Amino acid sequence: MGAFGQVSRSFLASRLTLSAGLRADGNSYSTEMANPLKQLSPRVSASYSLSERWALNANAGMYYQLPSYTVLGYRDQQGTLVNKANGATYINGNHLVGGVEYKAGNSAKITVEGFYKTYNNYPFSIKDSVSLANQGADFGVIGNTPVIPTSKGRSYGVELLAQQKITKGFYGILSATYVRSEFTDKDNEYKPSAWDNRFLLSLTAGKNFKRGWVAGIRFRWVGGAPYTPTDTTASLIQAAWDVNNQGILDISQLNSRRLTSFNQLDIRVDKLWYFKKWTLNLYLDIQNLLNYKAQQAPRLTPKQDANGNKITYVDGNNVTRYVANNIPNTAGIVLPTIGLIVEF
Q: pLDDT digit string (tens) for 278-301?
């Protein structure tokens, strides 16, 4: 269930615009989330025009979001909703944003904004002693797990955004962001989250030409994501590997290493024919034109002999281990597509 209301009004000859809203959410999953008054989300925003081109903007708000359905629906062998018993509840976020806006005519504007956000009640894995925000994509690969809503997080940074609405056939959006994203670990210390890329750059632009030709590009550059190294010593114990069939992460070094930065250039060219009652669109789309190979966390596997058998040895403690084989892990390929669209 949910309810939302908002009111806006202008003051000072429309130079100052204020807006305030309130939302409440609830559901019947558990007693922790049944009362909407516990999930009240107020928010307020203000915009003040310094001149015809310059304006100051600010907004603050409190938000509530359900954990993923896989978290809510996780059951043990007896069919018990484990995370319901563990007190799973709405994730709380508090946002504070402020900045300046410049209008370069009627079709273009530039904004610079700073932001600070905090998060509470984030799911924390009991099994791994890691916030799900610090696991990133690994959470989806490994599967679900018992969690408790105890992790906290914060993100802060600044963003530059330049927008050009379509003018004389040209349009474009450029954004450049510096961001820090951190969540607490088992010792309640802030560690980089899976989204702590630090620097992000994105450019999308296009041009409409005569005779139905359209061309566009998209370029993305993202700073290296953090990752947790594998505990080689624990992973390659024969008994452990035969059960897990994968490396065990070294949680004591949670997200302490970083991948290299990532970039991708995509282009697209369209040719349109306009008929009386229908349109024909032929296009060529090429993703990752520069064939960039994105670095991913290296994969640890046991080394194999010429016959494909895992090589073992016995260490000084009389423990049978596999010989380590670290494999570089990259992804990325040029992906061209030719398409035909018919619209009636």
A: 999 999 999 999 999 999 999 999
